[in-house]
Amino acid sequence: MSDLLGIAGSVSNPSKTRSAVEVALRAASKTYGVDTEILHLAEYDLQTADGRKLDAYTGDTARALERIINSKSYIIGTPVYRGSYSGVLKNLFDMIPRGMWQAEVAPLADKAVGLVVTGATAHHFLSVSQELGPVLSFFGSYPVGSGVYGESADFEDYEVVNTEVQTRLQNLGKATIELSRAIDESDYLRDFGPQF
Fold this sequence. Notes:
With 196 residues, the chain is α/β, with parallel strands linked by helices. The chain has one domain: Flavodoxin domain (Rossmann fold, 3-Layer(aba) Sandwich). 37% of the residues lie in helices and 19% in strands. Strands 1, 2, 3, 4, 5, 6 and 7 form a 7-stranded mixed beta sheet that branches. Strands 8-9 form a two-stranded antiparallel ribbon. A hairpin with a 2-residue loop joins β3 and β4. α1 crosses α5. The two termini are 28 Å apart. 44% of the residues are buried. The mean pLDDT is 95.
């Protein structure tokens, strides 16, 4: 089980999105000694979501979903395409169960989720909250702050070089663990879940 799972919703390898997510994971691990892992969708051959039940998935898809189910909190990153998150991440979201008909588990419900978005220019920074915020609400997750946006100028050779963005990513990783622990200790946050 991972205390903090980073999901890089990119099919590129190397990937700016993955690098940004890893900055957050390293900071959380260094500060709190938690177990972190990365799930980079470029390394998985995911099946297309088609409404099947969780136990009907096999191969890489089953392995990816199992890692998500067995994690306590998340950093989810995506590149921006056409003003929205990646299609491969959308496909993954479509397979993650909500504790209803697809499976009894709801891995993202009542969990802390930090968001990271990367794009070519600053024009897409609203994608963090405008596009991914409703998805988190659908799953009953708790977003950590306003997330982090990094544009191409913040990277060099796929690594984050802008110190302000690095600091923000590090704080996101640490804050995700803090929020996860607060949820665990709460009488109500840990069982609030999605309304519908």
